[in-house]
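R.M. (postdoc): so does anyone remember the format we settled on? I'll just put the structure tokens first.
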């Protein structure tokens, strides 16, 4: 487990973002080559809610039954399998499992940014491992597939913090003040070799190990990495994506798309079109979250 403080800026943080200011958008596309889309994504907000099972009140609808947003969840998953089948099931199972787990551990959210934060960090690691075991269990029921796995990148925003759980090479980015920061580290053999000093970074794009996963949900090894950063800077943007985007679109181009578009939908669609124009060799999934500019 690692906790990374990515930004040390002295800029003043903004006030807590209201629900009406949130601008989310996500899309997924099979690409130009593959017939099946094995990616999945999810964006959701988590609220305390009152469920009325019986009442004599005439106008229950006037009661405040849903509380203020506790957290926001972002997720992308890119399924893979040995026989070319089962990848979609792997990413779906992992996404469903980790979402159920995270939403059931509301008691740990209050620890965000406090001395008791280890409780939340551990729950996120446990959630990723729960997803890993769920995929492994499903694979054991279908030995004819020869194994299945999935990348899993989950972001949990508990204002003013973002926690990112990483398995595999789908990515999470943070954009602020004109700069794009990659939050996650690609869990591939190629990146491992670079980190160990055994492969020069400039040779990684040509390495046969560049896209070989060293950790994934359902694989032989699942090594969740947890990162943390503050996201309360005015104008900051989050982006999550599978490698179907980053195979064709560079980080500077991602930053330019975020800079040039004011709506999350437009960012996603412009990046998707760019990846498709350059071949679209894999499934492409993109999720963008930013603060909507409200009329003054």
């Amino acid at each position: 487990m690692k906790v990374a403080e990515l930004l040390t800026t002295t800029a003043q943080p903004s006030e807590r973002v209201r629900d009406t200011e949130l601008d989310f958008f996500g899309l997924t596309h099979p690409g130009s080559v593959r017939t099946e889309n094995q990616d999945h994504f999810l964006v959701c907000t988590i609220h305390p809610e009152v469920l009325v099972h019986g009442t004599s009140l005439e106008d229950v609808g006037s009661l405040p039954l849903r509380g203020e947003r506790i957290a926001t969840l972002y997720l992308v998953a890119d399924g893979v399998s040995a026989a070319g089948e089962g990848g979609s099931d792997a990413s779906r199972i992992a996404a469903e499992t980790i979402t159920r787990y995270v939403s059931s551990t509301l008691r740990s959210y209050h620890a965000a940014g406090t001395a008791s934060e280890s409780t939340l960090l551990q729950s996120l690691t446990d959630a990723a491992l729960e997803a890993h075991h769920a995929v492994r269990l499903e694979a054991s029921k279908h030995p004819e597939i020869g194994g299945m796995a999935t990348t899993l990148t989950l972001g949990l925003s508990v204002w003013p913090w973002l926690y990112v759980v990483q398995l595999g090479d789908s990515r999470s980015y943070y954009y602020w003040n004109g700069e794009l920061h990659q939050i996650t580290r690609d869990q591939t053999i190629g990146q491992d070799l670079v980190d160990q000093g055994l492969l020069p970074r400039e040779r990684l794009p040509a390495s046969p190990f560049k896209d070989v996963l060293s950790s994934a949900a359902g694989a032989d090894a699942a090594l969740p990495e947890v990162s943390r950063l503050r996201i309360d800077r005015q104008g900051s943007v989050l982006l999550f994506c599978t490698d179907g985007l980053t195979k064709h679109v560079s980080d500077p181009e991602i930053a330019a798309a975020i800079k040039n578009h004011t709506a999350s939908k437009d960012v996603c669609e412009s990046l998707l079109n760019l990846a498709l124009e350059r071949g679209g060799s894999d499934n492409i999934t993109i999720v963008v979250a930013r603060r909507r500019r409200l009329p003054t």
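R.M.: ...and that's the designed sequence above, right after the tokens. Also worth knowing: The domain at 25-46+67-291 is CATH 3.60.40.10 (Phosphatase 2c; domain 1). The longest helix spans residues 118-140.
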